[in-house]
Design goal:
Elements lengths: L7 H21 L9 H14 L3 E2 L11 E5 L2 E3 L13 E10 L2 E10 L5 H19 L8 H13 L3 E2 L5 E3 L6 E5 L16 E4 L2 E3 L5 E3 L7 E3 L5 E3 L2 E5 L4 E3 L8
Antiparallel strand pairs: 1-4, 2-4, 3-12, 4-5, 6-10, 7-8, 9-14, 10-13, 11-12, 14-15
The protein binds 2-amino-4-trifluoromethylsulfanyl-butyric acid (MF3) and cobalt (II) ion (2 copies).
Length: about 250
């Protein structure tokens, strides 16, 4: 599979879908409170996407049944929404991928439930910095591998580890396209970036060991092997003539 260079029409479509995915995460903010079940958040997200003319890409994807992935505390990613009630002090990631007019937008972020520990805050801050450092490497002519190189450097400097079992990915025309975007990579490795490429950067950073284990009952939920916290942020990125645009960054955080 080759990396798809998107034309203007496709870019416009991916931009619109990405915006809606980001708006879905923003909409959920008001509901993140102690006592809400993750399955209820999933329902609210699906309702919002549907109301705005989109479909959740995850529903029916490889047998996955939900509109979002919701990953609290030691869940690294692919947390299956269920009857778990968020509690005061939890941190939780929600990941949404929209299909709008056939185009895909993919984003995730962390939320704090009530007041969280300084330890959790620091992990989330560094993880967000990892995403932003990765984005700084996004310009034409740079090697894709430099994204993972700077992410790993930054995480390790803070005593954290980078998950290598799950990666970023090309996105836009399909849910998962080439290239695979590793969050640990060698300097100046991988293909050269070109305008019109769209892919995600979605580092998962663990407070403890990098390894994950997938829940045997639901077949999806990936947890840290040591039970320590994990954090993740994700944007859909467009490579432009001069650098990049984060199509899911509607708050202008970057
Ligand atoms: N949205 C996730 C990603 O960032 C993928 C979820 S796939 C699912 O790539 F099937 F688990 F939903
Ligand atoms: Co993704
Ligand atoms: Co995602």
């Amino acid at each position: 599979m080759a990396i798809i260079i998107k034309n203007q029409e496709q870019i416009d479509g991916i931009r619109a879908s990405s915006r809606l995915a980001a708006e879905t995460l923003k909409y959920l903010e008001q509901f993140i409170k102690p006592g809400i079940k993750t399955i209820e958040l999933d329902r609210l997200a699906e309702e919002f996407m549907t109301k705005h003319g989109a479909k959740p890409a995850t529903k029916g994807y490889k047998g996955y049944k939900h509109a979002t992935c919701i990953s609290p505390n030691d869940v690294v990613c692919h947390g299956v929404p269920n009857d778990y009630e968020l509690k005061f002090g939890d941190v939780v990631n929600v990941d949404v991928t929209t299909i709008l007019n056939g185009y895909f937008g993919d984003t995730c972020r962390m939320y704090e439930v009530g007041e969280v520990s300084p330890y959790a805050k620091e992990l989330m801050k560094v993880t967000n910095e990892c995403l932003h450092l990765g984005m700084k490497e996004c310009y034409p002519g740079n090697h894709l591998g430099n994204i993972g190189y700077v992410i790993n450097e930054h995480a390790v400097k803070h005593g954290y580890s980078v998950v290598f079992e799950f990666c970023g990915h090309g996105v836009g025309i399909r849910f998962h396209e080439d290239p695979q975007v590793d969050h640990v990579a060698k300097k100046n490795s991988g293909p050269l970036l070109r305008p019109g490429m769209t892919f995600t950067i979605e580092p998962m950073i663990n407070a403890g060991k990098a390894r994950c284990k997938v829940d045997r009952k639901d077949g999806w939920t990936a947890r840290t092997i040591d039970g320590k916290l994990s954090a993740q942020y994700e944007h859909t990125i467009l490579i432009t003539e001069t650098g990049c645009e984060a199509l899911t960054d509607i708050n202008g955080d970057y």
